[in-house]
Automatic annotation (TrEMBL), chain A:
Transferase among keywords: yes
Protein name: S-adenosyl methyltransferase
Keyword tags: Methyltransferase, Transferase
Gene3D superfamilies in the cross-refs: Vaccinia Virus protein VP39 (3.40.50.150)
From TrEMBL, chain B:
Ranges of residues in domain PAS: 185-255
Pfam families reported in the protein's UniProt record: EAL (PF00563), GGDEF (PF00990), PAS_3 (PF08447)
Record-annotated GGDEF domain positions: 342-476
PROSITE patterns assigned: EAL (PS50883), GGDEF (PS50887), PAC (PS50113), PAS (PS50112)
Family matches, as SUPFAM superfamilies: EAL domain-like, Nucleotide cyclase, PYP-like sensor domain (PAS domain)
Organism of provenance: Streptoalloteichus hindustanus
Full protein name: Diguanylate cyclase/phosphodiesterase with PAS/PAC sensor(S)
InterPro entries reported in the protein's UniProt record: Biofilm_reg_signaling, EAL_dom, EAL_sf, GGDEF_dom, Nucleotide_cyclase, PAC, PAS, PAS-assoc_C
Transmembrane region(s): none
NCBIfam families documented for this protein: GGDEF, sensory_box
Residue stretches making up the PAC domain: 259-311
The organism's place on the tree of life at top rank: Bacteria
Length: 276, 743
């Protein structure tokens, strides 16, 4: 989840509990209690409009787990999780270190509360760090001590932008931002991306998701829904891993039945690209 | 983990496998195999359980991992259900384990409890009153359900509290860090404010001063308390440009966001400081003007330096008097402010003989003399409205900005000349100095500073030529004459090329028979501006400027061209041509060659050309002109002496000269005109007679000029004069006149 780390005048931005935080809203949808009344109010209002949002968030987390495992199977042992949010069950380092305890993860988020919480959670975890930064600022993220100290960018790395790019409007040029990360990624690296969408077979769903996006406009973060083509464009410059850009639950499901989740309607896209 | 509800620690009992085996619900076996014996039950239930709760909670496991995980929990549940003695406590742990795996969705618990009530007992054969021990099966199931729900609730409550605690803690830490950052940021800005070398002041839009940094306090000489009791408007300075306070009003009213001006301030001690002031408006979130921030840079030193440079730029370093630039500035201003009736006066003076003093006594003495003269001028002239300036070398100028009349500048000039009468002591020298002064005084209307300066310059020149220690007043008529002369001399070369000159011819007549024998060429200038000009208007000028040489050359060529026409037309009856030769021409080394070339070019016989020279051109000159005359004479050209008798000719010398003709000046001939009562004509007649005799004795011909009457002509003939010229015969005229006379 992203938000500007500093205000427009270069002053530190206050921690404002009167405004909902996307990270805490997600936590609530995932069944967590790292949230406040203002977050839950927004979450509930959103769910009343799009009931499948919690399911979509669960599907996103499930995709994250599958994608991380895919990367591990591809030999990758280092991860850069951009927009990591509130740590919850199934964090990247837990998934990765279950496979290889030597796996290393740098989390990046701009929400000061999420960062503060992550710092506590990770205090005793070797091989995992949290960086307080905005993913839109690769010039700050990539040379940071957290990244340079823990990750070796000369070797393949998995860069995760899971449920974070819909907080980057076109005016912030997400393609350029991704391009800056891509340039820093060694061949064999992967970009893991998921994105909420207003695309739907059911027109009503698209309209409802758009209303939620509007809801967010009053919160700390703006929300940009992107179509499948737009999501695919974000992966430009990467070689798409099979099966390409798909609905969340359809990206390499654990079982052919995709029995993990039962979303009635899947409102997110997922894709993994490989740096050639 | 919480304890069982009873709170009494009990030893964990092994499963009563025997009982289970005895009931055949699952395969029997040894004590270690009690649950293993129910492996199918465990697996079957785990699959059903996983199916039931799928999608109700987020757990970070794949489906098969979920099934494995739930199989483990199922094993514990089976153990609890079948334990002997019965103990539901392990079910609490299952509830807690579900929460730990993040099976936190409410629906997950609902479905789990429901499944536990129906599916698992059935699989284990625990139905109805079937009772593995003392309790009925239904009681065991209910107890296990309760324990699971209790454990679940306890764990979820704990988890919720932990997470709430964690997120609150995170907020606290994040806030603390943000506040620290804000404090650090504020401290940085505070340091910038406090330490800035620029003065910074903050006020509200009513102008009350709220805060000021040390630089500003230092600059203004006030304490912060004193400054806080003042309003921005208290710092108005009488010399402030009107725009300063207009900009200020616009700023505090929110019509502009900042302005930058140069402004003077009074310090607390009354001293004036010069500043660059930049004032910015601070608005609140809604855009309303709230504060003003003034940044003030003290540029007093720079300003004073500029003042000094300006003074240096406008003053003469030697005498300290205003220099030319300042004088010209004041002169222009006198014209700008003079209005319709204003008059301005200039005394332009120059020391007489300064160069001699400078050259003989050295520049040091010269410089000190200039300083002393400057002081005297300053002492006797300077007053409001009068400016003494040194405008170069030994030239000074006095500007009278509002002159009353010409008498004003004359009085000043007299004072100045008087002030310079006393000798000036420079070191061991007593130097007597004087000055020449050119005066111009006139209304400013209809003239310009440049005109006045030029006229003063001209007038100073007149004063200089009039002699030392004099003033001259500008005379517009004299100036006009000189301007005309200057204009003529400047335009003469082009006038020759443009053909503005032409020749008239005056007949020369033989007195004995009235026959026309020659013609004198007389040059005229048809000037486009001044009209027809006689030779007296421009020949002298041409001699001064040297233009006489090309002009004379043109006259000679043109006259010869005409002579050739007559020669062709009248043959032997054609008149010779007589052309005047100026002194300067006679000394021109190219004269002989020029004449020869003209004769050759025009085909005129040398004997038909007569050159008229004045006495002074022929007499008492060096040998070279004579050589030229001899050469011309040798070519056959006739040489005549013009205006003979007016100069001081050495008559004895005349015989050695290559001269053929004397032209007797008209003044002698005039006396022959009438039978004057005083008898002066008798004297003139004798003089003319003597001249004729002398000439004839030397073998020279004689022509009388200025013959106006028949009587004169007759007397001259009686005297023996050869030829005559004058209005009695013909006035100078175009060549046609000659043609008519000959035809």
């Amino acid at each position: 989840m992203t938000s500007v780390a500093t205000g427009s005048r270069g002053l530190p931005e206050d921690v404002d509990l009167d405004r909902p935080s996307a990270a805490r809203v997600h936590d609530y949808w995932l069944g967590g209690s790292h949230n406040f009344a203002v977050d839950r109010a927004l979450a509930e209002r959103a769910v009343r409009i799009v009931p499948e949002l919690p399911a979509a968030m669960r599907a996103t987390r499930a995709f994250l787990r599958r994608a991380v495992r895919y990367c591990l199977a591809s030999g990758i042992r280092q991860f850069l999780d951009l927009g990591s949010g509130i740590p919850t069950v199934g964090n990247v380092h837990e998934v990765a270190q279950a496979v290889d305890p030597a796996a290393r993860v740098v989390y990046v988020d701009s929400d000061p509360v999420a960062v503060s919480h992550s710092r506590v959670m990770l205090a005793d975890v070797p091989g995992a760090e949290i960086l307080h930064a905005d993913l839109r600022d690769p010039e700050r993220v990539l040379p940071s001590p957290e990244v340079t100290g823990l990750l070796d960018l000369d070797r393949p790395v998995a860069v995760l932008m899971v449920a974070s790019l819909h907080f980057v409007p076109d005016s912030d040029d997400p393609v350029h931002v991704i391009g800056r990360y891509r340039e820093a990624m060694a061949p064999g690296s992967h970009l893991v991306l998921s994105h909420l969408t207003g695309d739907s077979d059911n027109e009503a769903v698209g309209e409802q998701v758009s209303r939620v996006a509007a809801l967010y406009a009053s919160s700390a973060q703006r929300f940009t829904l992107r179509s499948r083509a737009e999501v695919t464009a974000l992966l430009a410059g990467f070689e798409l891993v099979d099966p390409g850009v798909t609905r969340l639950a359809e990206w390499r499901p654990d079982t052919p039945r995709t029995t993990d989740e039962h979303p009635r309607r899947d409102i997110g896209y997922a894709g993994v690209g490989r740096r050639v | 983990m919480s304890r069982p509800a009873e709170g009494i620690p009990e030893p964990r009992h092994r499963l009563g496998l025997a009982a289970l085996a005895g009931r055949g619900a699952v395969g029997g076996g040894a004590a270690d195999d009690d649950v293993t014996g129910h492996a199918d039950v465990v697996l079957g239930f785990a699959l059903a359980w996983a199916e039931a709760v799928a999608g109700t909670s987020y757990v970070s496991m794949s489906r098969s991992e979920v099934e494995q995980h739930l199989a483990g929990l199922t094993r514990q549940l089976v153990t609890a259900l079948l334990a002997e003695p019965f103990d539901p406590a392990p079910a609490r742990e299952v509830g807690a384990a579900m929460v730990a795996a993040h099976f936190t969705g409410t629906e997950t618990l609902t479905r789990t409890v429901a499944l536990l009530a129906t599916d698992l007992p059935a699989r284990l054969g625990l139905t109805g009153d079937a009772c593995p021990g003392r309790e009925r099966a239904v009681e065991r199931v209910a107890a296990v359900q309760g324990a699971l729900a209790g454990g679940y609730a306890e764990a979820l409550r704990q988890r919720t509290l932990d997470e709430q605690e964690a997120i609150s803690q995170a907020v606290f830490v994040a806030r603390d860090q943000t506040e620290q950052a804000l404090r650090a940021s504020e401290a940085r800005f505070r340091a910038v404010f406090a330490e800035a070398a620029t003065g910074i002041g903050v006020g509200d839009v009513a102008g009350r001063i709220l805060d000021a940094n040390a630089s500003l306090l230092d600059m203004m000489g006030y304490s912060l308390e004193e400054l806080r009791q003042r309003n921005v408007r208290d710092f108005m300075h009488p010399e402030d440009a009107a725009s300063v306070w207009r900009l200020y009003d616009e700023l505090v009213q929110g019509q502009r966001d900042h302005f930058r001006v140069e402004k003077r301030f009074f310090r607390s001690d009354g001293e004036v400081i010069w500043t660059h002031l930049t004032t910015s408006l601070i608005r609140d979130d809604r855009g309303n003007p709230t504060y003003q921030v003034a940044m003030i840079e003290d540029v007093t030193d720079r300003h004073l330096l500029q003042e000094r440079l300006r003074y240096q730029a406008l003053h003469d370093p030697l005498t300290g008097l205003p220099n030319r630039a300042l004088f010209l500035d004041r002169l222009s201003r006198a014209f700008e402010t003079g209005g319709r009736d204003g008059r301005v006066g200039l005394c332009y003076l120059d020391l007489d003989g300064f160069k001699v003093i400078n050259d003989s006594l050295g520049h040091d003495v010269g410089d000190q003399l200039l300083v002393a003269v400057g002081q005297r001028l300053d002492a006797c002239v300077s007053a409001p409205g009068r400016l003494v300036a040194r405008i170069g070398g030994d030239e000074f100028i006095i500007l009278v900005e509002r002159s009353g009349s010409t008498q004003d500048v004359v009085t000043i000039a007299d004072h100045v000349l008087a002030a310079l009468e006393a000798p000036i002591r420079v070191g061991e020298h007593e130097l007597a100095v004087s000055a020449s002064i050119g005066l111009v005084e006139r209304p400013v209307q209809g003239t310009t500073p440049a005109d006045v300066m030029r006229d003063a310059d001209i007038t100073l020149y007149w004063a200089k030529s009039d002699g030392k220690a004099k003033w001259a007043l500008f005379d517009p008529e004299r100036n006009a004459r000189e301007v005309a002369r200057f204009t003529l001399s400047a335009t003469m070369p082009a006038a020759i090329e443009r053909g503005e000159f032409y020749l008239d011819y005056q007949p020369l007549v033989r007195l004995s028979d009235g026959q026309l024998v020659g013609a004198e060429a007389l040059v005229r200038w048809r000037h486009p501006e001044f009209g027809l000009l006689a030779p007296d208007r421009f020949i002298g000028l041409a001699e001064e400027t040297g233009q006489i040489v090309p002009l004379g050359r043109w006259v000679l060529r043109e006259a010869c061209r005409q002579a050739r026409l007559w020669q062709d037309r009248f043959g032997s009856r054609a008149p010779f041509i007589s052309v005047n030769l100026a002194v300067r021409q006679s000394r021109d080394p190219g004269l002989v060659a020029d004449v020869a070339k003209v004769l050759a070019d025009t085909g005129v016989e040398a004997t038909r050309l007569q050159l008229e020279l004045t006495e002074s051109a022929v007499m008492g000159t060096a040998d070279e002109p004579l050589d030229a005359l001899r050469a011309l004479s040798a070519m056959g050209v006739r040489i005549a002496i013009d205006d003979f008798g007016t100069g001081y000719s050495n008559l004895a010398y005349l015989r050695h000269l290559p001269v053929h003709e004397l032209k007797i000046a008209g003044s002698f001939v005039e006396g022959l005109r009438a039978s004057a009562a005083d008898g002066s004509h008798v004297v003139d007649a004798r003089i003319v007679g003597t001249l004729v005799s002398l000439a004839h004795a030397l073998g020279l011909g004689v022509t009388a000029e200025g013959v106006e009457t028949e009587a004169q002509a007759r007397r001259l003939d009686d005297i023996g004069c050869d030829s005559g010229q004058g209005w009695y015969f013909a006035r100078p005229g175009p060549p046609d006149q000659i043609n008519r006379l000959l035809s």
